[in-house]
Structure formats: C-alpha cells, structure tokens
Specification:
Nitroreductase-like, 394 residues, single chain, alpha+beta, globular, 11 helices, Nitroreductase domain-containing protein, binds flavin mononucleotide, 35% helix, NADH Oxidase
C-alpha cells in the first residue's frame, strides 16, 4: 500500500491543554480521550460527503477506538464506474469530512489504507458491506488537523445543477493541492461540446443509463426518497416533468422503452458529435461569459508499484485517488465558503470520446489522468439539500 496520511484541528484551534504539535506540556491537563460517541458524531458529519449518484458507498464501523470503513457492493456503480474512480474520490471526500469533524473537536486522524483498497476488483457485484474487510482504518490523533473548514461547511455544501454566473478564478486562493495534482481550466465552448458527447455516451450505454435510472428518486412516494440517490428536487426537475418521468423509474415496461429511446437518441448525438472538431479555443485574454470549468488532473507515479496489474485500470494507486478525493472535497468546500456553487460533470471523464477531446484541449501527457470535471460559478438560486442514510429524521 502506498500512502498513508495524517489529518488532524482548524488552524489556530489547538485543543485545551495541548501544544500545536499535539503534545501536552508539563503541568497541563491532557485532552480528554476520544470516545465512541465522538467517533459516531464524526461519522454522522462525514455522511454528508458527496458521492456519485448519491450512492453513499461507505460503511463505517466504530471498532476499539478506530473507525473501519468498508465498501458496500450494492452502492458501487458497476456499469458507470468500472475503474472505481468515483468510488475512490467519494471515499476521499468522506475521509476529509470525517477529519473536519475531528478537527472541530481539536483532533486529528491518521488514515490507514488496508490491502483491500488495492483489491476492489475482488468485491462482489452485489450485496452488503463485509465488515471484516475494511478498505480504510481511521485512527484518532491528538495532533490537530489544520483545516479552515467546519462541520457546518460540510453540511451546507451542495451540488448545484441550476444556472451559474461567472465568478473569479477559483484557483487563485484554493487550498494548496497535494503534489501530483493540478486544477486545469477548460474553455466554455469546448466544455459544452464535451458535456454533449459525455451525456450522449451515458444515454447510449444501456447498462450505464439503467444504473443512473436506478438511483433516481423522482417522487416523494419512492421508498428511498429521503435516504439516497438523486431526487427530482435536487435535479431541479419541474413538477409536471417529474410526475411524468417518475413511473419510468418504477414500471419495467416503461423503463425498458425509455432506455431504448435514450439509446437511439444518444447514439445519434454521439455519432454527430464525434465527427465535429472541438470549437476554436478562445483568445487568452477573453473574459469568462459563463461558469468556470475545472479539471482535477493527477500525475501517474513514474515508477509503477508492485500492484501494477491492479493499479492499471486508472493508472494510479487507489490510495492516491482517495487523497485526490480529499483535495476535491476541500476545493468544493472552498467554493462553498466563497459563496460559489459546483456542478460536477463526470460524463466528460466517463466517455472515451469526451476524454480524448478533453486531453487534446488541455494538452495532457500520457502520464496525466483527468479524475474529475466540474463547473463552478455564482448560483442565482439556492440548491435543494440531498438526502443521506445517516441524517437524523426531522
Ligand atoms: C466523484 C463524484 C462524481 C460526481 N459526478 C456527478 C455528475 O457527473 N453529475 C452530477 O450532477 N453530480 C455529480 N456528483 C454529485 C453527486 O450527485 C452529489 O454529490 C450527490 O447527489 C449528493 O448531493 P450533494 O452533493 O448536493 O450533497 C458527483 C459527486 C462525486 C463525489
């Protein structure tokens, strides 16, 4: 296993009785031990982390003063995320949120990836989490985690799918990224083209589209409306459209017909899009007229590890992708703090045609992997909250 990381209190918030490095000075009262109640509280905050399709693929368990995190096979997107990219990024966002909750109590977290993280392909395709097979073990630490973010930020951050006005370049004051990660900008004209290609790819791959439909919750009558997945409200669907579309997610005959129609339309759009070149790039000093589009890019390690076969799907060690997920969550929380909103567009990194166009536009090297694409801007209306399995009933 490659990397472990330490996460630890917001800047300047040293716990009572501790020095900034977490040791207790002579004569001072040591910080009280972390209790299981504390860990359960941190787990609840972490439950508000973002995940692709709001699958919440993590299964945390408090064991002997640590938190063991297993993956729930039923919550892994078998068709849409075969490289486990989104799973690993979501786990990273969860870990970062957990560390922010620990930081609010003046603590840190040591993250220990287990060898199961390198063997995600051994997971069954279906079923519940295996509690005996965690992929990460989180150990509380006395040394506090320096983060500017709070549990309120984690709870208040939302994905925004409405209109976004232009905003200043997010990258000027974003928290520094770990070595090997970069945020690159793609222009609006190219992004529109790539989003269209990516959307068409999703629609035209029946298994991927069916998986998306499985996570839609288009009516409050859906039994999992307040638990997981993407609701009509989150997707900003007008009520008449949601009422019309809701039966598509529940009645097999309608569902099959809708997937067939989406496949035909998707293939047609894809065929046209693939023959068209990317629009000409804008002049370097041309101001943004819409949201900013950013791509989180990782550099693959120069020397391949002993788990070369297993790393091959993404070309990156899984623990590094978890770290990238932590950085992504910090970036999205930073946008939230700045009054900005984020709209991810994973379809651009899912579709081979869109990825190829993106790589060309950004001039990526073979050693660089685009992990996440998202738009960021000033929202013109608030975004509705998404459900979570771990939310307290209201
Ligand atoms: C790795 C990752 C990929 C995502 N990809 C998309 C996407 O392609 N399109 C989208 O609308 N939302 C995407 N999301 C956002 C999730 O749908 C969202 O986090 C989830 O529904 C919970 O909603 P919230 O972020 O408002 O809490 C992604 C989130 C993560 C962590």
């Amino acid at each position: 296993m490659t990397s472990t990381s330490r996460a630890g209190t917001p800047a300047g918030a040293t716990p009572a009785g501790a020095t900034p490095d977490g040791t207790t000075p002579a004569g001072a009262t040591p910080a009280p031990p972390v209790t299981d109640d504390d860990l359960h509280r941190w787990v609840r905050v972490a439950g508000r982390a973002p995940s692709a399709h709001n699958t919440q693929p993590w299964s945390p368990r408090v064991v002997a003063g640590t938190v063991e995190v297993a993956v729930v096979p039923d919550r892994v997107l078998a068709a849409g995320d075969p490289s486990f990219r989104d799973l690993l990024l979501s786990l990273g966002a969860w870990v970062e949120s957990f560390a922010i909750a620990a930081a609010a109590d003046g603590r840190g977290v040591h993250v220990e990836p287990t060898d199961r993280l390198d063997r995600l392909a051994d997971l069954p395709v279906r079923g519940p989490a295996d509690p005996g097979a965690p992929v990460l073990v989180l150990h509380p630490q006395a040394a506090p985690y320096p983060t500017p973010f709070t549990p309120a930020d984690v709870r208040g951050r939302r994905t925004h799918r409405g209109h976004l006005d232009p905003a200043p370049d997010l990258r000027t004051d974003v928290p520094p990224l770990p070595a090997g990660l970069a945020l690159l900008q793609v222009d609006d004209a190219a992004m529109r083209h790539l989003v269209r290609l990516g959307g068409a790819w999703t629609a035209s791959r029946r298994a991927v589209a069916a998986e998306l439909v499985r996570w839609l919750r288009l009516s409050p009558a859906h039994p999992r409306y307040a638990r997981d997945g993407m609701t009509d409200r989150m997707l900003l669907l007008p009520s008449p459209l949601a009422r019309l579309a809701a039966p598509l997610t529940r009645r097999p005959a309608l569902h099959d017909a809708a997937l067939t129609a989406a496949g035909i339309a998707g293939r047609a759009v894809e065929a046209v899009g693939r023959t068209r070149p990317l629009p000409a790039p804008p002049a370097p000093d041309e101001p943004l007229t819409g949201p900013q589009h950013l791509v989180l890019v990782a550099r693959t390690p120069g020397v391949r590890s002993g788990t070369e076969e297993l790393d091959a799907r993404l070309g990156l060690p899984p623990a590094d992708v978890v770290e990238a997920g932590r950085a992504l969550q910090r970036t999205w929380l930073h946008a939230h703090r700045a009054g900005l909103a984020v709209a991810p567009h994973s379809e651009v990194v899912d579709s081979p045609h869109a990825v190829a166009g993106l790589r060309r536009r950004l001039g990526l090297r073979r050693t660089q992997v685009a992990l996440a694409v998202f738009s960021v801007g000033r929202p013109t209306a608030p975004a509705p909250a998404s459900p979570r399995l771990t939310d307290e009933p209201v």
